[in-house]
Amino acid sequence: MTNISHDRLLIIDFGSQVTQLIARRLRELNVYCEIHPYQRVTMDLVRTLAPKAVIFSGGPDSVMRDGSPRPPEGIFDYGVPILGICYGQQVMMQELGGRVEGGKISGGGGTAEFGRAYVTPNGTLDLLNGWFDNGDEQVWMSHGDHVAALAPGFEVFGTSPNAPYAITADVSRQFYAVQFHPEVHHTPRGAKLYENFVRLAGFSGDWTMAGYREQAVEHIKNQVGDKKVICALSGGVDSSVAAALIHEAIGDQLTCVFVDHGLLRKDEAQEVVGMFRDHMNLQVIHADETELFLGELEGQSDPETKRKIIGRLFIDVFQKYANDIDGAEFLAQGTLYPDVIESVSFSGGPSVTIKSHHNVGGLPEKMGLKLVEPLRELFKDEVRALGRELGLPSSFIGRHPFPGPGLAIRCPGEITRAKLDILREADAVYIDQIRKHGLYDEIWQAFCAILPVRTVGVMGDGRTYDYACALRAVTSVDGMTADYYPFSHEFLGETATRIINEVPGINRVTYDITSKPPGTIEWE
């Protein structure tokens, strides 16, 4: 979205895998922030954004390497508070006249530090208000290099066994730098540092969903004018909130297209179409394109190929229906900030792209449609807050996320109609179990995946040779990181028994206890 009127904080991303968590911590403090890759940040951009403060993220590189990432020349003279984190601390020292000692990453002899550490205070600093009340503070370290000499004007305010300059500051210029990562939950009181930093920078905390709603509605009106919009509607939280927001802005200029690609959960098409027509009074086209999607997916087993086929067909389907809507010039999507982050690396290259998202990256010029993505700057929990602000029913807002490619990415290997039918039934039993035990709202996302293997089993007096399935359930705040849900053995045993007894075609049930990272939430 353009023309954000809130106080801004600029996060310069040097490639850390947890840069987005910095943004989450700031959003929780009602501070509007934007993440920009370091090589795209010029002083012209800084002046355009006019941030009240800047944060340098961590990163995987070494400041000892020629050509390693740097902030724009002139940033230290811009006159706003700056906080450097991990690599951000090191680059701050290196640029301002300090010295960084190379660790294993850069071939030096410095001691690396990865994991839990404890920082001891050294003097008092406003950034640390609320810290060290009960002694040393637990933090999370992840660095190979470390600061060996402070830049002029800096003092040390905290040390750890392998980081003698764990917390440093030039108080007069409001430059602060820490070697650890306060944004991760392994630094239990890290949020307090961000709270102190934005307070010192003078932020008013004006980033609210009520304000965002008002601004987004105005932006949509200005972007669309008197033209018509078609909305990609899945029935999930993201597209539901996007549709409601756009409908508030332009009313009957919006037509929602619900694509039934044959990869939905049991009875989902009827529930979604009825939900939007009955509860929200939106214009909804039910596009049954099962044959098209399953036909093109036949014989395909590579996950990226499946995602790309689905993404291409979505575009084709929307193009077909857009052609039938006179005056349709825009396509609305429920793209979220994590989708954008996962699909585009900070360096702009493909090497660190995790997976393709079917609704990210713009549309082919041949479509002649422009994108409306009113949620593109929001994390999932912010979308839920916006949904509440818009007055959507809790049944909409509380739904577990469901991916655009649907069951295609919960069916590793080749997709067949028979496997999809088995998967639907198993997933329905699993979710029913979760609801019966009152666990649905405790879980971020839960689903069943059918595995591309068959196993031998015994049922009654006969031998079976059927599919195995994996149950997945995770807890999360924003989908960027996740932990598996700790079901009891009794629950898992009861659920496995029900699936095997009620779903022909499955004779073995497993539970996935992988966190994110290293895994992703979905299997493909």
Task: Give the helix/strand layout.
Elements (H helix, E strand, L loop, with lengths): L7 E6 L5 H10 L3 E6 L5 H7 L3 E4 L25 E4 L1 H10 L2 E3 L11 E9 L15 E7 L2 E4 L5 E6 L2 E8 L4 E4 L11 H11 L8 H16 L3 E6 L3 H14 L3 E7 L7 H12 L4 E5 L1 H8 L5 H21 L4 E5 L4 H7 L26 E3 L7 H10 L4 H4 L19 H20 L8 E15 L2 E14 L7 E2 L4 H14 L3 E6 L13
Parallel strand pairs: 1-2, 1-3, 3-4, 4-11, 12-13, 12-15, 13-14, 15-16, 18-20
Antiparallel strand pairs: 5-8, 6-7, 6-9, 9-10, 10-11, 17-18, 18-19
Helix pairs in contact: 5-6, 5-11, 6-11, 8-9, 13-14
Structure notes:
This protein is an alpha/beta fold. It is built from 14 helices and 20 strands. The strands form four sheets. A nine-stranded mixed β-sheet has the order 2-1-3-4-11-10-9-6-7, sandwiched between helices. Strands 14-13-12-15-16 form a five-stranded parallel β-sheet, with helices on both faces. A hairpin with a 4-residue loop joins strand 10 and strand 11 (175-178). Helix 6 (237-250) packs across helix 11 (380-389). 44% of the residues are buried.
